[in-house]
Amino acid sequence: MIRSDQDGTVGNRGSENGKHSPPADRCPWPRPFPADFSACPAYQPAGFVVADSLNRTLGSERTCHHLVVGSESNGHGPRFYPRCALGGGAARLRWLATVRPERAAVRRALREEFDEASRPDRERLFSAGARAAAAPPGSTAERAELEGARDALTERARRFAGDQAERLADAGEPVAPLLGMLDWQPAPGTVTATDEFWLVGRRTVAAGDDDGCARVEAGNLETVVTAGPMEVARRRRPPGLLVSGEIDTTNAETLGDTLAAELAGRDEVHLDLASVLFCDLGGVRAIVRAAQSAGDGHRVVVHGMPGHLRRALRVAGWSDLPSVVVDAEHGA
Amino acid sequence: MTATTRPVQAFRHEAFFYAGEEELVEGAAGFVRDGLRAGEPTLVVVGAHKIERLRRRLGADADAPLLGFADLAEVGSNPARIIPAWQEFVARHADAPLLRGIGEPVHPGRTPAELAECERHESLLNLAFAGGRPWWLLCPYDTTSLDAAVLERAHHTHPYVGLPDGSAGSERYDGVARFFEQALPPVPESAALLRFDAGSLSSVRALVGRQAARAGLRSARIADLVLAANELATNSVRHGGGRGTLRVWQDGDTFCCEVADSGVLAEPMVGRTRPDATAEGARGLWLVNQLCDLVQLRTSPAGTVVRLHMRRNAR
User: Fold this and answer.
1) Interface test with A, best of B74, B219, B253 (most A CBs within 10 A)
2) Cβ–Cβ contact A208 with B under 8 A
3) Model ipTM value
């Protein structure tokens, strides 16, 4: 049975072989996203102008910067689905750990602010584009209006980028390439005023962007324990424990126990924190306590400790952690 | 400030009222020179500009090994950081019979919230060093630029008050600090609110992060604030009845974050003592004081409220 879904995707409903598992990178959240959507930690709002089939604008909606169209073939032709460009849930957390949650928060705030500030310009541009596309060839008035609307939006974006240069740099969004994107010229007769004009562009975050993070390879990781928003996995190559998610008072003891158990079997345990989104002092204390309890001859080597956490430890008066060696810093 | 020949036999916490910077520089220079002549280690914690002027007035004496300077902006933009700095100074010179210090936390640039915390700090100084080794701490107050109310409070928080021509015991001194209970200004209606328990610490962090970013804070300060808010929420969960209420809002160029719970703080010096490396608990409020621009703590039998302030830009 082939049926069109309400959101326009076409595909096979219920394969003959039984249940069909969705692709790992399918976006699991319903759209459109509400204003204060917070269920997905990697969510980055991207506004776009909604129009009907006659190109009449219906207002503005919210999608996610990472949301793209995916397709999979199931023997009956391509099936489209909403795809997260970052990947599945684990990949989204890795992206967040690389970018750092606080930078992601700044990016989100900047996007929301630009969306708000530029919505009238974008709606005007879209309407002008629709009228230009519908106008007879050679008509100058609609063309002039379109260029005026585009110039207005470009100017708005330039001014925003200038005013917010510091925050953009802080969030890791370089400004110069962004402004380069704004000189986009629509080909005559074609206008798409969707989120191409989003300030940070349609850059798809490819897997290569999570440089420095441990690569996940099937079979290389084996989950040891999950506790709330934290997961600890044992990694084969290179050997060690990989912690991801958030460590706080609700699961620090679990982390400590897991580490202690690992130390019972070997002198040195490598602890990879590069996928940790948050760790409080209690979490560090649990690591130190496990390392100390293991006794002389045992030590924990911590990799990928966020620079910010390192600074907080110094501030708290904990520069030298007994039995713990901290390797390269990650993030600033 | 004329040289006082009265021997300092206990902690002498003295307010020094001066009219205009010249009087301060002159008085401070005399105080410092007296100390150096007597071989007393001395630390001056004032604004950078005043350090500069004082150094020039002192000439060669400015480089005496017994004399140290520290920029107030670095030591104590959050007044709760100042007592630990003095504690460290005192501990460093445990062998010296007498020490001297000049500390000016109250200056015209302070906001009303900061002034309230400065007053509390002045009051707690008496508690922090009562019964300890003798040393002399001078707290300058500029009569030409500070409000009369602020100057009046100085009489209540300092056992000794001084003018350039002499000093005496303060008749209005309130004694060693009681726990400060003055109510905080109300939380604005626009504040975002979240009731949390152990299971929602993640939501606390996410809300603080998102709202702080909207208020224009830089990512490093957002990270610091999230860590601080998490410490407060953790305290609520572990010691404050298992739950609490988080409120966050923007106030001009300052972002505020408040955690309220039903716990009661018993220790007035909480958060103002540097924890030693092995200390288990009581590190949370210390960290919060180091990370945030201002921390306001209020406790009563009804519960405890801690309000954090983070300016959009570090001053």
Assistant:
1) B219
2) no
3) 0.87
